[in-house]
Amino acid sequence: MGRFIIRSPEYQNYYAQFMNYLHAIGYSLSSRKTFTTGIKEFLYWLEKQEITTIHAVEESDIENFYIYLQERPSLIGGGALSESRITLHMYTLKLFFLHLQDMQQLDLNPMCNLNYTCDYKRIRENLLSLADIESLYEVCSTSKQRAILGILYGCGLRKQEAEQLNVKDIYFKSSLLYVREGKGGSKRTIPLSKIVLNDLKDYYFHERPGEIKHRSTAIESFMLNKYGTRMQGDSYSRAIKNLVHKAGLDKAITPHHFRHAIATHLLQSGMKLEHVKDFLGHKSIETTQTYTHITTTQLRNTTAYGTNTLPV
Asked: In this structure, is the dihedral angle defined by the CA atoms of residues 93, 288, 258 and 204, taken in order, positive or negative?
């Protein structure tokens, strides 16, 4: 976010303190940057409004900042900011002020009477059905496309985890994939279904070698882009967008939708909730319940576990 440069030493200090706080409670660097994007923009916006100290911020300033977010164009691709992005910014802003209050650096919290609860249709409600997944596989024309679906859907990886995936993290002989650093620095092992394993093998042995541009350089990343370097999140998003378009699915699908889809499909196929929790890398089982919208009655019926429950 190079456009939001904070000049005030006071605001720079508050921003650094908040980053350190998020680090202390276990967030990865990538998550900290995502969380604090809105804080950085807020402090930048305060400077533009000539509000020179955090102690001068009032409730009306928070409301004006919320209006500003709704009106300003997205820095990526134009158009308006999504409701999810705005809600994330406002949630982080609330956390920021609570932190200042807890550290006794602020007497009055300007957000204490404000509530910016997300009222849009959440990402998890735009669920991909098994038929949708099958349609996406059917329109794949390369082993790379199938490998991308295998990583995001078959393995349920977060976009950041997919970006960080290295060749050494996949054990073809034992049909296992290792997530070395998940959310909050956690690690986990993911069993690969036969189809996902074969798709990853096919990409690695047949298509990936042709993508390596500098053969004298060791390429650690498992997924490579057209330049022969590590495939980033935007490339995953574009690949998914193209497949969704080819499959004729009338849905706004992001890489994260596949993570929710595999969780739901695994539960529906009989995997125990606690095993889905481990598969996704959640710290608490409550998070898994939130992801899947599974009722207590349905949970009583989930008994089986094993890689054969993968629906594709």
From this structure: positive
